[in-house]
Amino acid sequence: MARDEEKEKLKKTILLLQDEIERLSSPPYITGTILDFADKNARISVDGVGVFEVPFGDKLKEEYKTGARVIINPMTKSVVGQSEFDIASGRVVTVEEVDGKNLRVQNRGESCFVLSNLEGVKVGDEVMLDPSGAIALKHWGKKKTPYVLEKIPEAPWSNIGGLEGIIGIVKEEIEDPIKHKEVFERYGRNPVKGVLLYGPPGCGKTMIAKSIAYNLSQLTSCPGKKDGHFIKVNGPEILDKWLGNSEGKIRRIFTAARDTASENGAPVVVFIDEADSILKTRGTGVSTDIYDSIVPQFLAELDGINGNGNVITVLASNREDIIDPAILRDGRVDRRIFVPRPSEEGAAEIFMIYLKNKPLDCRSFGKKDIKGIAEESSAQIYDGRNVAYRVVSPKGTLGFFLYSNLASGAMIKGIVDRASMYAIKREIAGNGRGISKDDIKRAIEEEFSDHDGFAQAIVPTDWEDVFGHNGRQYNRACQQGYLTLENIFSRIEDSTKLKEVKE
Length: 503
Ligand code: ADP
Prior knowledge:
The protein is an alpha+beta fold. The protein contains 17 helices and 19 strands. Helix 9 crosses helix 10 (370-382), helix 10 runs parallel beside helix 13 (437-450) and helix 15 (460-467) crosses helix 16 (471-479). The protein starts with a helix and ends with a helix. The structure holds adenosine-5'-diphosphate (ADP).
């Protein structure tokens, strides 16, 4: 009896050992994803190896679906079961196009097609691919736009000074077609899809774009329900070294704008600052290959806007002359609006905006009211003796850029901020209250002498203002180093010095 028991025990041990030997000598299984089925085969993407076709009977087909994660015997290349593990790694990509069971995605800077049997995938969504990148396995929903989709803060036209005429044009071009839609329709005029604001920096282009968005949302919104939105992108942010990525970014910006506009029923303004950096004229030498694909993508997006005034593209540029003309053609961004530097009166209006509600030392201004103070402050900048740069050629002086040739709304705000700081310090020290005439004078002097960047802020239209029809030519000569800008940044009292100009 004892011998039988011992025999039985030995038998069991041998069987166990046999199992163990088999387990140890068999290769590890590999995993893969079922891509699709043919009549007798299945196409399987094996992780890290490639795509195989393996025999797949009808019974197996009932058990497995496209996208299933399966275990494969590497010797026989047959499916031996369902993987119990979740997918270990897979690239997350953004969907650019949905075409039935194919998705076009951006993968490592390239556009490519992948399979998918996921439900409800839309353009702009993110999906996770299997490790081979052949099929989309998980749906992550909408990729958050990396661009700021701001709710529009209050930005009434009255925040902008000295641009009444320009604002009038913007209202006519953008607000009226929405306000009086039926009338415009009867005359066959559609709302504009976009405007180009061009002109020197710091003069209110961004402010205008924000006010467009704010005022449009006021026109169309039900109180408390809909908000206008504003997407601001700087052109250079869109440029990407990976081929195809810049186009992808443009696509995502406009998809976000269109989706937000249709979800909210309120307008979205897409504002692209420094637009010339991405929309340069193709094939002219000022562009490289990258623009040859960005510009068509941009055109496709503009053409895809349905023209009901819900997505408005506002481009801003200091170099409108190099923007591809196809963008500015009829039915696209076909309104060009020049936003100039402020005139003396305009500068006074801007001073008023920033000085109002601030303590002022009216006595120092000879008891003037705020309007008088603003006018006097502006007159200090526009004093024809305040010289910023002398333009010098090898033959001598060609002319001067005055402070007034460089004035901008941003600069006036800077001057008021500085003057406020002087007044604050004086009041803390117990030496009086309010911004004085001297504070403004000192702030103007310091605002100019502190800024090295003015030369870069001079745009071709400024050269034309100073040198008339020679302006553009002088501008180019300066860029090429034939002319120089010599810093002056002070008052030249002797008016004969301002006249010593060589032809
Ligand atoms: P741009 O887009 O033309 O470079 P911005 O609109 O960004 O200039 O102006 C920069 C800042 O300068 C604004 O935020 C605002 O404070 C001030 N500013 C510029 N222009 C005006 C203006 N016309 N009226 C009032 N403030 C202005």
